[in-house]
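Section 5: illustrative case.
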């Protein structure tokens, strides 16, 4: 079951400087967010929804694999430092699990140098550092260079 993120119209969401931002002009995507920190995943899902995309969350690598198989995500944003599975391993597993529909995989890490420490990955198309810049996040989801 996909866990839906709060709607960008949810009155319980705090008003912030970026909340007046118009939804992305890119075609809406189904975005799966995989992060073991629920507050990070849920906040990112709220931002992705505010950008005009459909967001769902998984709070472990294994749950992310299950959801990717059933939810048909166009884009997967995954934390590299998951406790049950390294993000690079998850990215490779996602490609194997979804052979007919390859999602765009975006790695998200709290450490800027984790890309080089993790080694090369042909599965990961974009690397972002937490917290992601909104313009870079939009471009990554759309598959465009920021």
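Designed sequence:
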């Amino acid at each position: 079951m996909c866990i839906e993120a709060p709607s960008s119209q949810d009155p319980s969401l705090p008003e912030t400087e970026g909340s007046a931002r118009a939804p992305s002009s890119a075609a809406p995507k189904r975005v799966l967010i995989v992060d073991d920190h629920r507050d990070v995943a849920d906040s990112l899902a709220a931002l992705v929804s505010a950008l005009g995309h459909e967001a769902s969350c998984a709070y472990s690598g294994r749950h992310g694999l299950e959801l990717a198989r059933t939810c048909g995500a166009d884009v997967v944003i995954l934390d590299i430092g998951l406790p049950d599975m390294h993000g690079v391993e998850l990215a490779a597993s996602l490609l194997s699990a979804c052979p007919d529909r390859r999602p765009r995989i975006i790695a998200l890490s709290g450490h800027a140098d984790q890309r080089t420490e993790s080694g090369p990955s042909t599965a990961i198309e974009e690397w972002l550092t937490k917290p992601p810049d909104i313009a870079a996040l939009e471009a990554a989801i759309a598959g465009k260079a920021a």
